[in-house]
Specification:
With about 270 residues, this protein is of the alpha+beta class. The chain has helices at about 5-15, 20-35, 45-90, 110-150, 165-175, 175-180; strands at about 155-160, 185-195, 195-205, 210-215, 220-225, 235-240, 250-260, 260-270. It folds into three domains: about 5-85, no CATH class; about 105-150; about 155-270, no CATH class. The protein is built from six helices and eight strands.
Length: about 270
């Protein structure tokens, strides 16, 4: 238990080992100073060396003692820094306790602004869609009202295979009313008759379509009209001067060419009181 063993026990109790040469030297000097056969008092150089090594050993022990305290302080600061993050996670409703919290990629203000902008855009597009829908409905109502209110023809005449005879050709080319239009008789096409009038279409010398109403019974060309495409061709014949005979009273018949058909509208004049 004396010499080396005593020094080893003493070092272990103090919590310090000396694997270096200085450590072994200190152990040997301690045996000479504190062992049963201590003889260091008669060796001033050994005594001075013991004091030097003891001082170095004490400084080393104090340094090692300060190191755990520093680490503990650093750990405390880490815990303190983590507390606000945990509190923030709880405030935001973290789905899993203890789960690592990723750093925010953008400030809260910027995220809120983007959210407001998205809601505003959705609201704006929603209102625009509603306005567009109302406009479509309004347009449909207007078109439907127009179609309902528009007068319907009393008769619709369609193209026939009848060819123009000499009477019609003569009336179209020589009549004062049709002569100024220079209608080409070879282009005449028949649309049938209505209230004694035969309706024909043709093309004049200028390439414009024409519409003609002929009264065969009176050997008379009542009306003729030519107009460049796509203008409507409208011819009105009346009971005054055109040989129109309407049993129900006086009035006019309006013929309107619409492609391969001609619509006829009868308009009666109000009776005088």
């Amino acid at each position: 238990m004396d010499s080396p063993l005593a020094a080893g026990v003493l070092s272990a109790v103090e919590g310090f080992t000396h694997p270096s040469d200085a450590g072994r030297e200190l152990d040997e000097l301690r045996v000479r100073a504190y062992g049963s056969d201590h003889d260091i008092d008669g060796d001033p150089r050994a005594l001075a060396r013991l004091r030097e090594l003891e001082a170095a050993h004490l400084a080393d022990v104090e340094r090692r003692a300060d190191a755990p305290a520093s680490e503990s302080s650093a750990g405390t600061e880490t815990v303190k820094a983590a507390v606000p993050a945990v509190a923030l996670a709880e405030a935001q409703g973290s789905p899993e306790p203890g789960r690592a919290i990723a750093p925010l990629s953008q400030p809260v203000e910027e995220s809120s602004l983007r959210s407001l902008l998205r809601r505003a855009m959705r609201t704006w597009w929603g209102r625009l869609a509603r306005v567009a829908g109302m406009l479509v409905v309004a347009a449909a109502i207007v078109v439907a009202a127009f179609l309902i209110s528009a007068p319907r023809p009393d008769a619709t005449l369609r193209l026939t295979a009848v060819e123009a005879d000499d009477q019609v050709r003569t009336l179209v080319t020589s009549a004062e009313r049709a002569g100024r239009y220079e209608i080409d008789p070879s282009t005449l096409r028949a649309y049938g008759s209505y209230h004694g009038f035969n309706v024909w279409s043709g093309v004049n010398a200028f390439g414009s379509p024409c519409l003609v109403a002929v009264h065969r019974s009176f050997d008379y060309l009542s009306r003729a009209r030519c107009a460049p495409f796509p203008a409507d061709l409208i011819v009105d014949v009346s009971s005054s001067g055109d040989g129109l005979d309407i049993p129900t009273g006086d009035g006019i018949i309006r013929f309107i060419r619409r492609g391969d058909t001609v619509d006829a509208y009868v308009y009666l004049l109000p009776e005088a009181d």
